[in-house]
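Collaborator request, handled under Task 6.
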Amino acid sequence: MSVPVNPNPKGAIKSILNYQWIVMNISLFLFLAFLAILYIANGHLADKTIRKINATQKELKELQFEYKTIKSELMRRSRAIEIENEVAPYGLVVAKEMPIRLVLEKRFSSIITNQKDTIN
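Structure tokens returned to the collaborator:
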């Protein structure tokens, strides 16, 4: 059996792409269109996610700089000389003498221990 040879190639294309063939394969075309829409939507979603990640990274860097600035300012302000300078207008100064230790008399210490026992 021999295969008939069509001398007109345009006729072959027309015979393949006729109305019946398109109607028979409409589900394939719809599936391919659906896949194309999913592919485009996935690309847009990826771009949106990348933009969010970049914005978050930028915000994180700004917060890190702010943290380091505040931390260094706190370290500077918590030095002893800085504290003395800040409280000087209120009349507070560092004591030059050692603190005095008060000794309780025996009768006061026994009263205190008795009060602790009654509380417990």
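The cover message to the collaborator said: "Helices lie at 9-16, 19-24, 26-77, 80-87, 106-119. The CA atoms of residues 84 and 96 lie 13 Å apart. Please let us know whether this matches your experimental observations."
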